[in-house]
Every structure is written in C-alpha cells, then in structure tokens.
Amino acid sequence: xxxxxxxxxxxxxxxxxxxxxxxxxxxxxxxxxxxxxEVCVKNIRNNKGxxxxxxxxxxxxxxxxxxxxxxxxCKSTINEKWYKIIIPVMPGKYGVSVLDDENMDGKMNxxxxxxxxxxxGLSNYVHKGIRKPKFKYFSFEFVxxxxxxxxxxxxxx
Length: 157
Prior knowledge:
By secondary structure, the chain is of the alpha+beta class. It is built from three helices and eight strands, in the order H-E-E-H-E-E-E-E-H-E-E. Strands 2, 3, 5, 6 and 7 form a five-stranded antiparallel β-sheet that branches. Strands 4-1-8 form a three-stranded mixed β-sheet. The radius of gyration is 22 Å and the shape is globular. The protein starts with 14 loop residues before the first helix and ends with a strand.
C-alpha cells in the first residue's frame, strides 16, 4: 500500500495558497477597520423603540431609500440622551440618516398633515422646515486613513 503525501486540501487549494488568502484577508480587515466613521446621535427623546441608522452614498439612493449600509440599535440600552455608533467605511462621499423608530415598525410615521410623528436626524445637519433635505446638505467626504466624527442632532415635531 502506497500513500502519497499532498499539501493540497479539498478542491485543490494548496495550504500555501490558503495561508496567503488568510493573511491577505486579515490585512484587508485591519485596513478597513482602521478607517472608522463615528456617528454621535444626540437629543434622543426616550429609550423606547430603536434607532434605525443608514449610510447613503448619493442623492439618488437617499431619495429611493436604498442605503449602502444600515443597522438597527435597541434604545432600551441607552441611558443617556446620546448614542455613539462606529461604522467601518471606505473613502468616498457619504451621508448618514437616523430614524428614532419608537413603535419599531421600521419606517417613519406621519400625522394627518404630513408631519413626522417620530424623530429623525442627518449627519452634521440640523433640519429646519418641512421638506426632505437634499443629500448635498448633509453629505461629507471621507478620506483614506482617517477617523471621522459626524454628529446627528435628532429633531422631533
């Protein structure tokens, strides 16, 4: 009986190639994680419901409500009137929106005349008026290798 020693795993992927992919993955992840966007959400009304946070890359995606990244954070863990969120990002232009989804239905609720019943906020922008703002007013440029902090001031009607 003859056994042939092989350093190939299943599917023909060599151990050396596997290790190279593994190391490349670690290097990429550490590079991406070093580029962080810190979102500081302020003026949160209460600790009921959830914060729905979305990262948009352009006006069209914002208008269609198709975020590049989104996540929900349970407000029952929030003890203060502010919350900090860390988002790993690549260089580019972005805008952040936050919905204070108090009834946890995943969408903004409005009254009979069209005013929001729940809080909302946008990156580095204090909303005034009734109309939805343009992306250019709350967008920002994220440069490679930096840690950036944006503030979202929640507004309630």
